[in-house]
Amino acid sequence: MDATSRSGDISRRDLLKAAGGLTFLALVPAARGRFALDVRPALDRVPPLFTALPYVQPGDNSRLVANQERAILAWQTDATPADFRVVFGPTTQYGHTADVTVSRRSTLDTEDAEARLNYTAAFPGLRLGTTYHYRVSLGAERIAEGYFTTRKPRGTPTRFVAFGDNSYGDISDRAIAYHAYRARPDFVMNTGDNVYEGGLDNEYARYFFPVYNADLAGRRIGAPLLRSIPFYTVIANHDVHGKTAEQHPVADFDADADSLAYFTNMHLPLNAPIHPQPTPTVGDAARLEAFRACAGDRFPRMANYSFDYGDAHFLCLDSNLYVDPTDAEWQAWMADDLSGTDAAWKFVVYHHPAFNVGVEHYQEQHMRVLAPLFERHGVAIVFHGHEHNYQRTRPIRFAPAGPGAAGTVNAKERLVPGTFEVDAEFDGRRVTRPNGVIYVTTGAGGKHLYDADFTGQPSRWLRPEDGNVAYVDRLVADRHSLTVVDVRPTQLTLRQVDERGGEIDRIRITRRAAGQAAVRSRAGDGPPAVR
Ligand SMILES: [Fe+2]
User: What three-state secondary structure class fits 459?
Assistant: First the structure.
């Protein structure tokens, strides 16, 4: 339901009609970002206030394995203890009881109004591409009932939406959440800077959960996405927003005791080795220990991961300034990951765009050194955020002149010069087989925009440092937008949708039915040449 045209009170029936994957909810808004039971329960103690309504997370799934699919249902309350029970199953008869675990997210302040309990219910042994129902109860009281669909197997049409640089309480965040919901995606792939300013737990509570798990769908409200749609994201600069004395990024637990909420609110695959340059932390030892106890195995491992969905494989990377993309160990893991999948389409997702012509972040080019690796392994599209606008390149083959400043960790200027080979024939309409990798920056997800006056001005999309090579094909910076991608075994369609629902870009990419090559070589349809 679209609530934007409504006025006056919202009836309970309307709320449930609008509630996405929830079919019953016994919680009503009690204060900003807090929800209370709407009945006086027959409980022997006071029930907690909810600070995040139930939300579905992908959990630790990477490859698609029949009958071994898992999912996580998570929710958060204030610090009042409670004994939740969760059942799940393929029908509303449920039939299975989930393991429920709880961990405390605490600031350790004596007057800790922000302390909360993070709950998860684990659903193991699921079938792929199947809808499951769940019920959360407290004593005899039903709290929430809903449903979600597991990852689709190979050969099944899939739609995902991508956007980044979003949650900060702005009206534009809500419009993008609304259009993401209107697109009816199978999942969300966020490109980082999901929550401003510091990736803090209290910022998730204020800016993320109320908008992306809103009870109603509306341009000025947000949408009930998270309760039934898995939300993937990557760690980005605003998740690690503290500074050392040398002005290097660090998660500073003295400044913000609820730092690094990426690692406590998200439940993403844990299939990567611990990174050679893990997310740096400083601060009081007890606060750090409290954070680690809540994050468990997720910190620091979850900064990198990969997963499959339908005919696509996603490699998700930490591109923060503390990482060195020339690191041989890390590159070896990426190469193993990309060569070890039989998915028709390979996508890479990280926050700092390797190829962008914007003013704000052009110099953070360290991830450029990975371009040859991505080309070698037939990556179709790399998705980023960071630059707050939309930029789509033509298919690119890039040969770095050397590592440049890619390995100079924590430097602001990390230029990587090199030579470009740009596929100018590909137009995404008549010519649909790209020769090279397409780089999409979709950082117009809600935060204030950069370089609005670049829109419609291709002469401004050239950088002398890059020899004025016209690698950007489309740039829209005067409005917020999100990316909608439809994936089929032999073709994909990428559309960019603006905050009013209008289409501002569209390309179609095709590939042969067999083999891994998603690109066209000079000689015809063979695999790309290894450079
Ligand atoms: Fe950013």
Answer: helix
The Cα–Cα gap between 226 and 393 comes to: 31
Mean pLDDT by 10 residues, the chain (531 residues): 43 60 85 79 78 95 96 94 96 97 78 79 98 93 93 97 96 96 96 96 92 92 94 98 95 94 98 96 94 96 98 98 97 98 97 97 98 98 98 98 96 96 98 98 97 97 97 98 97 98 98 59 35 25
- Residue 426 corresponds to which amino acid? F
- Distance of CA 178 from the midpoint of ligand 1 (Å): 22
**Other C-beta atoms within 10 Å of 306: how many?**
24
This prediction has a pTM of: 0.93
Q: Tell me the C-alpha to C-alpha distance, in Å, between residue 34 and each of 29, 75, 134, 168.
A: 6, 12, 22, 18
Whole-angstrom distance, CA of residue 73 vs CA of residue 395: 39
Q: Identify the CA nearest to 282 among candidates 325, 229, 233, 242.
A: 242
How many Å lie between the centroid of ligand 1 and the Cα of residue 166? 10
Cα(190) to centroid(ligand 1), Å: 12
- Surrounding ion ligand 1 within 5 Å at CB are 193, 237, 386
- At 270, the amino acid letter reads L
